[in-house]
Write a structure and sequence with these properties.
The model has no long low-confidence stretch (mean pLDDT 97). By secondary structure, this protein is mainly alpha-helical. Helix 1 packs across helix 3. The radius of gyration is 16 Å and the shape is elongated. It has one domain (9-153): Ferritin, core subunit, four-helix bundle (Ferritin), CATH 1.20.1260.10. 76% of the residues lie in helices and 0% in strands. It has five helices and no strands. Belongs to the Dps family. InterPro entries: DPS_DNA-bd, DPS_DNA-bd_CS, Ferritin-like, Ferritin-like_SF, Ferritin_DPS_dom. Residues 17-155 form the Ferritin/DPS domain.
Length: 155
């Protein structure tokens, strides 16, 4: 069935392609944060273990919101590890870094996610896609704040 929500087919495609990257970065950051939650050790164990759980839970919820927006635009959401690996700007961690390195990697991950989100705004604005712009703004606020909070732990 044809989609007629006031956004051209070309604009919907461009927005969905950008959101695919946002979804992939969110998934990569979710996996990394959850792994760090499981594997953190050291004097900050309890603080980081709890903080990482809060963060990965928020990221998990965001995955559904982003994927559902892609679907509302009429495109399939990526859903495989290989698709996410190809689309994500955040690289996986296969080892178990020290706690401060975990924090540093998560700062870098949230900053990368913020850059990806910022790169999608022009497509959303071009298509007058306010719901996507709103979603991107909400996600950006969370990534910027989380990066700041994590960065503060390293000072």
């Amino acid at each position: 069935m044809k989609i007629d929500i006031g956004i051209s087919d070309e604009d919907r495609k461009s927005i969905a392609e950008g959101l695919n990257k946002v979804l992939a970065d969110t998934f990569a950051l979710y996996i990394k944060t959850h792994s760090f939650h499981w594997n953190v050790t050291g004097p900050m164990f309890n603080t980081l273990h709890t903080m990482f759980m809060t963060q990965y839970t928020e990221l998990w919820t965001a995955l559904d919101e982003i994927a559902e927006r892609i679907r509302a635009l009429g495109y399939p959401a990526p859903g495989s590890f290989s698709q996410f690996a190809e689309l994500a700007s955040i690289k996986e961690e296969v080892g178990v870094p020290k706690a401060n390195d975990m924090i540093r990697q998560l700062v870098e991950g949230h900053e990368a996610a913020a850059r990806t989100i910022r790169s999608v705004f022009p497509a959303a604005e071009q298509g007058s896609d306010e719901p996507t712009a709103d979603l991107l703004t909400q996600r950006l606020q969370i990534h910027d704040k989380t990066a700041w909070m994590l960065r503060s732990m390293l000072e």
